[in-house]
Amino acid sequence: xxxxxxxxxxxxxxxxxxxxxxxxxxxxxxxxxxxxxxxxxxxxxxxxxxxxxxxxxxxxxxxxxxxxxxxxxxxxxxxxxxxxxxxxxxxxxxxxxxxxxxxxxxxxxxxxxxx
Length: 115
Known about the structure:
The chain is an alpha+beta fold. Helix content is 31%, strand content 38%.
């Protein structure tokens, strides 16, 4: 089995409740389906970038700054970690999530340290 990170990218701002509520309901259904299939490992949404704090090592010191690492029109809004046989299976779950949320989903494998 391979572990994959599915990253949700969303535009700035929060959608109105009439859009957000059905999205969250549909995403919850996909999460339940992943759990039933044994693919789900972990999932979580993130607060907006304005709540971020960044630690950087520079000139022998750790610098702490407020705000996101990078400015952008889209930001990482949440993640799901899955454990599936291969990339095709990961892409199938990403397809279900993007249908549920209408958000772009980035799929990346974790490095397998056992190899």
